[in-house]
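dumping this here before i forget
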Amino acid sequence: MTNYVIEPAQQVSFPVRGSDAVFPVRRIYCIGRNYADHAIEMGHDPDKEPPFFFQKNAENVDTSGEFPYPPQTSDVHFEMEMIVALKSGGVDIREEDALDHVFGYGLGLDMTRRDLQGEAKKMGRPWEIGKAFERSAPMSELVPASDTGHLEQGRIALQVNGAERQIGDLNQMIWKVPEMIAYLSRFYDIAAGDLIMSGTPAGGQRYTAGTHDRWARRHGPDCPAVTPRIPKSRCCSSSQTCYSSSSSPSPSCPSPWSSSSSSSSSSSSWSSITRGV
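structure:
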Protein backbone atom coordinates (compact mmCIF):
# COMPACT_ATOMS: atom_id res chain seq x y z
CA MET A 1 0.00 0.00 0.00
CA THR A 2 1.38 3.38 -1.04
CA ASN A 3 2.23 5.73 1.82
CA TYR A 4 1.17 9.24 0.73
CA VAL A 5 2.37 12.36 2.52
CA ILE A 6 -1.16 13.77 2.19
CA GLU A 7 -4.52 12.08 1.72
CA PRO A 8 -5.08 11.56 -2.05
CA ALA A 9 -8.23 12.81 -3.71
CA GLN A 10 -10.98 10.29 -4.27
CA GLN A 11 -11.43 8.90 -7.77
CA VAL A 12 -14.20 10.80 -9.55
CA SER A 13 -16.85 8.51 -11.02
CA PHE A 14 -20.48 8.46 -12.05
CA PRO A 15 -23.14 5.81 -12.49
CA VAL A 16 -23.80 3.48 -15.39
CA ARG A 17 -27.34 2.53 -16.36
CA GLY A 18 -28.19 -1.03 -15.38
CA SER A 19 -25.00 -1.66 -13.42
CA ASP A 20 -23.75 -1.45 -9.86
CA ALA A 21 -20.33 -0.53 -11.23
CA VAL A 22 -19.41 3.10 -11.83
CA PHE A 23 -17.39 4.81 -14.56
CA PRO A 24 -14.08 6.36 -13.39
CA VAL A 25 -13.29 9.76 -14.91
CA ARG A 26 -9.75 10.56 -16.06
CA ARG A 27 -9.98 13.66 -18.27
CA ILE A 28 -12.74 15.76 -19.84
CA TYR A 29 -12.21 17.13 -23.34
CA CYS A 30 -14.74 19.70 -24.58
CA ILE A 31 -15.03 20.56 -28.26
CA GLY A 32 -15.95 24.14 -29.09
CA ARG A 33 -18.40 25.39 -31.73
CA ASN A 34 -19.26 21.94 -33.06
CA TYR A 35 -22.76 22.87 -34.23
CA ALA A 36 -22.84 25.35 -37.10
CA ASP A 37 -25.76 27.37 -35.69
CA HIS A 38 -24.00 27.73 -32.34
CA ALA A 39 -20.74 28.79 -34.01
CA ILE A 40 -22.63 31.49 -35.93
CA GLU A 41 -24.47 32.45 -32.73
CA MET A 42 -21.08 33.02 -31.07
CA GLY A 43 -19.84 35.15 -33.98
CA HIS A 44 -17.66 32.61 -35.81
CA ASP A 45 -17.62 31.05 -39.26
CA PRO A 46 -18.00 27.25 -38.88
CA ASP A 47 -16.69 26.62 -42.40
CA LYS A 48 -13.27 28.13 -41.70
CA GLU A 49 -12.30 26.75 -38.31
CA PRO A 50 -10.52 23.48 -37.50
CA PRO A 51 -11.74 21.73 -34.35
CA PHE A 52 -10.46 23.02 -31.04
CA PHE A 53 -10.74 21.62 -27.55
CA PHE A 54 -10.43 22.84 -24.00
CA GLN A 55 -10.53 20.77 -20.81
CA LYS A 56 -12.59 20.69 -17.68
CA ASN A 57 -11.26 18.95 -14.59
CA ALA A 58 -12.50 15.53 -13.62
CA GLU A 59 -13.50 17.03 -10.26
CA ASN A 60 -15.96 19.34 -12.07
CA VAL A 61 -18.29 16.39 -12.75
CA ASP A 62 -21.39 16.44 -10.60
CA THR A 63 -24.33 14.03 -10.46
CA SER A 64 -25.92 15.33 -7.25
CA GLY A 65 -28.84 16.96 -9.04
CA GLU A 66 -27.94 20.43 -7.74
CA PHE A 67 -26.01 23.35 -9.21
CA PRO A 68 -24.87 26.08 -6.78
CA TYR A 69 -24.58 29.46 -8.46
CA PRO A 70 -20.78 30.00 -8.76
CA PRO A 71 -18.85 32.94 -7.28
CA GLN A 72 -17.36 35.96 -9.04
CA THR A 73 -19.87 35.98 -11.92
CA SER A 74 -23.21 37.47 -12.84
CA ASP A 75 -23.57 35.75 -16.22
CA VAL A 76 -23.74 31.94 -16.10
CA HIS A 77 -24.85 30.11 -19.26
CA PHE A 78 -25.96 26.52 -19.78
CA GLU A 79 -24.98 24.43 -22.82
CA MET A 80 -26.52 21.00 -23.39
CA GLU A 81 -24.16 18.34 -24.80
CA MET A 82 -23.88 14.65 -25.54
CA ILE A 83 -21.13 12.94 -23.55
CA VAL A 84 -18.90 10.29 -25.13
CA ALA A 85 -17.17 8.01 -22.60
CA LEU A 86 -14.08 6.05 -23.64
CA LYS A 87 -13.24 2.53 -22.48
CA SER A 88 -9.80 2.53 -24.12
CA GLY A 89 -7.54 4.84 -26.06
CA GLY A 90 -4.15 5.34 -27.65
CA VAL A 91 -2.39 7.69 -30.04
CA ASP A 92 -2.98 8.30 -33.75
CA ILE A 93 -6.23 6.35 -33.73
CA ARG A 94 -7.78 5.89 -37.17
CA GLU A 95 -11.30 7.23 -37.70
CA GLU A 96 -12.51 3.82 -38.83
CA ASP A 97 -11.33 2.34 -35.51
CA ALA A 98 -12.43 5.17 -33.25
CA LEU A 99 -15.82 3.84 -32.18
CA ASP A 100 -14.19 0.67 -30.87
CA HIS A 101 -12.93 2.81 -27.99
CA VAL A 102 -16.36 4.11 -26.93
CA PHE A 103 -17.92 2.67 -23.78
CA GLY A 104 -21.16 4.63 -23.85
CA TYR A 105 -23.03 7.90 -24.01
CA GLY A 106 -24.68 10.32 -21.65
CA LEU A 107 -25.95 13.87 -21.32
CA GLY A 108 -24.26 16.79 -19.66
CA LEU A 109 -24.33 20.54 -19.19
CA ASP A 110 -21.32 22.73 -19.86
CA MET A 111 -22.02 25.46 -17.32
CA THR A 112 -20.06 28.57 -18.25
CA ARG A 113 -19.20 31.81 -16.48
CA ARG A 114 -19.67 33.70 -19.72
CA ASP A 115 -18.54 37.07 -18.40
CA LEU A 116 -15.22 35.63 -17.17
CA GLN A 117 -14.80 33.67 -20.39
CA GLY A 118 -15.39 36.85 -22.39
CA GLU A 119 -12.77 38.76 -20.41
CA ALA A 120 -10.25 35.96 -20.95
CA LYS A 121 -10.93 36.00 -24.70
CA LYS A 122 -10.35 39.74 -24.91
CA MET A 123 -6.97 39.37 -23.19
CA GLY A 124 -5.97 36.31 -25.22
CA ARG A 125 -5.92 34.14 -22.10
CA PRO A 126 -7.10 30.54 -21.57
CA TRP A 127 -10.75 29.95 -20.74
CA GLU A 128 -10.43 27.76 -17.65
CA ILE A 129 -11.69 30.45 -15.29
CA GLY A 130 -14.95 30.54 -17.24
CA LYS A 131 -15.29 26.81 -17.94
CA ALA A 132 -13.51 24.69 -15.33
CA PHE A 133 -14.96 25.59 -11.97
CA GLU A 134 -16.59 23.55 -9.22
CA ARG A 135 -19.63 21.52 -10.36
CA SER A 136 -19.51 23.07 -13.83
CA ALA A 137 -20.20 19.70 -15.47
CA PRO A 138 -23.55 18.32 -14.25
CA MET A 139 -23.99 14.91 -15.89
CA SER A 140 -26.45 12.09 -16.23
CA GLU A 141 -25.56 8.46 -15.79
CA LEU A 142 -23.94 6.72 -18.76
CA VAL A 143 -25.76 4.31 -21.03
CA PRO A 144 -23.51 1.62 -22.57
CA ALA A 145 -23.10 1.67 -26.34
CA SER A 146 -24.01 -2.01 -26.26
CA ASP A 147 -27.53 -0.87 -25.36
CA THR A 148 -27.85 2.23 -27.54
CA GLY A 149 -25.69 1.50 -30.54
CA HIS A 150 -23.44 4.34 -31.67
CA LEU A 151 -25.33 7.60 -31.86
CA GLU A 152 -24.96 9.42 -35.18
CA GLN A 153 -28.29 11.19 -35.37
CA GLY A 154 -31.20 11.98 -33.11
CA ARG A 155 -32.83 14.86 -31.30
CA ILE A 156 -30.96 16.58 -28.50
CA ALA A 157 -32.83 19.22 -26.55
CA LEU A 158 -33.01 21.07 -23.27
CA GLN A 159 -36.03 22.47 -21.47
CA VAL A 160 -35.80 24.89 -18.56
CA ASN A 161 -38.87 25.40 -16.37
CA GLY A 162 -40.98 23.71 -19.03
CA ALA A 163 -39.79 25.97 -21.86
CA GLU A 164 -37.63 24.54 -24.61
CA ARG A 165 -34.37 26.47 -24.77
CA GLN A 166 -32.09 24.33 -26.96
CA ILE A 167 -32.92 21.89 -29.72
CA GLY A 168 -30.78 20.23 -32.36
CA ASP A 169 -29.89 16.92 -33.93
CA LEU A 170 -26.70 14.95 -33.49
CA ASN A 171 -26.35 14.82 -37.28
CA GLN A 172 -25.74 18.59 -37.18
CA MET A 173 -22.36 18.15 -35.47
CA ILE A 174 -19.59 19.50 -37.69
CA TRP A 175 -17.04 17.04 -36.32
CA LYS A 176 -18.50 13.58 -35.77
CA VAL A 177 -17.54 11.32 -32.87
CA PRO A 178 -14.96 9.24 -34.81
CA GLU A 179 -13.34 12.43 -36.11
CA MET A 180 -13.15 13.92 -32.61
CA ILE A 181 -11.50 10.80 -31.19
CA ALA A 182 -9.02 10.53 -34.05
CA TYR A 183 -8.16 14.23 -33.89
CA LEU A 184 -7.64 14.24 -30.11
CA SER A 185 -5.39 11.18 -30.32
CA ARG A 186 -3.00 13.13 -32.55
CA PHE A 187 -2.25 15.53 -29.69
CA TYR A 188 -2.92 13.52 -26.52
CA ASP A 189 -2.56 10.01 -25.19
CA ILE A 190 -6.28 9.46 -24.77
CA ALA A 191 -7.25 6.61 -22.48
CA ALA A 192 -9.99 4.72 -20.69
CA GLY A 193 -11.92 7.05 -18.42
CA ASP A 194 -11.72 10.03 -20.76
CA LEU A 195 -14.92 11.93 -21.54
CA ILE A 196 -15.64 14.03 -24.61
CA MET A 197 -18.30 16.72 -24.37
CA SER A 198 -19.30 16.88 -28.02
CA GLY A 199 -20.51 20.45 -28.40
CA THR A 200 -23.82 22.24 -28.00
CA PRO A 201 -26.57 23.23 -30.44
CA ALA A 202 -27.70 26.84 -30.68
CA GLY A 203 -29.76 28.35 -27.90
CA GLY A 204 -27.44 28.16 -24.90
CA GLN A 205 -28.65 30.98 -22.68
CA ARG A 206 -28.07 32.82 -19.48
CA TYR A 207 -29.04 30.95 -16.35
CA THR A 208 -30.86 33.35 -14.04
CA ALA A 209 -30.12 33.09 -10.35
CA GLY A 210 -33.35 33.04 -8.41
CA THR A 211 -35.34 31.12 -11.03
CA HIS A 212 -35.73 28.34 -8.47
CA ASP A 213 -36.58 30.52 -5.47
CA ARG A 214 -36.83 27.53 -3.18
CA TRP A 215 -33.05 27.22 -3.19
CA ALA A 216 -32.10 30.88 -3.50
CA ARG A 217 -29.74 32.31 -0.95
CA ARG A 218 -27.29 35.18 -0.74
CA HIS A 219 -23.58 35.24 0.01
CA GLY A 220 -23.35 39.01 0.05
CA PRO A 221 -25.24 42.06 -1.25
CA ASP A 222 -24.05 41.60 -4.85
CA CYS A 223 -23.57 37.85 -4.98
CA PRO A 224 -26.84 35.91 -5.37
CA ALA A 225 -26.64 32.14 -5.44
CA VAL A 226 -29.16 29.47 -6.23
CA THR A 227 -29.19 25.71 -6.12
CA PRO A 228 -31.61 24.38 -8.75
CA ARG A 229 -32.24 20.72 -9.31
CA ILE A 230 -30.32 19.37 -12.28
CA PRO A 231 -32.22 16.29 -13.43
CA LYS A 232 -31.17 12.70 -13.67
CA SER A 233 -31.48 11.27 -17.16
CA ARG A 234 -34.11 8.84 -18.33
CA CYS A 235 -33.50 7.05 -21.61
CA CYS A 236 -35.60 4.91 -23.84
CA SER A 237 -34.78 2.48 -26.60
CA SER A 238 -35.45 2.64 -30.32
CA SER A 239 -36.66 6.05 -31.53
CA GLN A 240 -38.31 7.14 -28.29
CA THR A 241 -37.23 10.36 -26.72
CA CYS A 242 -34.98 10.11 -23.68
CA TYR A 243 -36.05 12.55 -21.00
CA SER A 244 -34.87 13.65 -17.64
CA SER A 245 -37.18 15.70 -15.49
CA SER A 246 -36.96 16.98 -11.96
CA SER A 247 -40.69 17.36 -11.41
CA SER A 248 -42.90 16.80 -14.43
CA PRO A 249 -44.22 13.29 -15.10
CA SER A 250 -41.71 11.42 -17.23
CA PRO A 251 -42.74 9.14 -20.09
CA SER A 252 -42.55 5.52 -19.08
CA CYS A 253 -39.58 3.75 -20.59
CA PRO A 254 -39.51 0.08 -21.49
CA SER A 255 -37.05 -2.26 -19.83
CA PRO A 256 -34.08 -2.19 -19.62
CA TRP A 257 -33.97 1.59 -19.89
CA SER A 258 -36.48 2.65 -17.25
CA SER A 259 -35.23 4.13 -14.00
CA SER A 260 -36.38 6.40 -11.23
CA SER A 261 -35.94 10.15 -11.50
CA SER A 262 -35.65 12.88 -8.91
CA SER A 263 -38.96 14.59 -8.20
CA SER A 264 -38.16 17.04 -5.41
CA SER A 265 -38.04 20.26 -7.44
CA SER A 266 -40.84 22.77 -7.78
CA SER A 267 -39.77 23.64 -11.32
CA SER A 268 -38.91 21.26 -14.08
CA SER A 269 -35.71 21.17 -16.09
CA TRP A 270 -35.66 18.66 -18.91
CA SER A 271 -33.03 17.29 -21.20
CA SER A 272 -33.72 14.89 -24.00
CA ILE A 273 -32.00 12.93 -26.70
CA THR A 274 -33.63 10.70 -29.26
CA ARG A 275 -31.80 7.84 -30.86
CA GLY A 276 -32.10 7.89 -34.64
CA VAL A 277 -33.17 4.61 -36.22
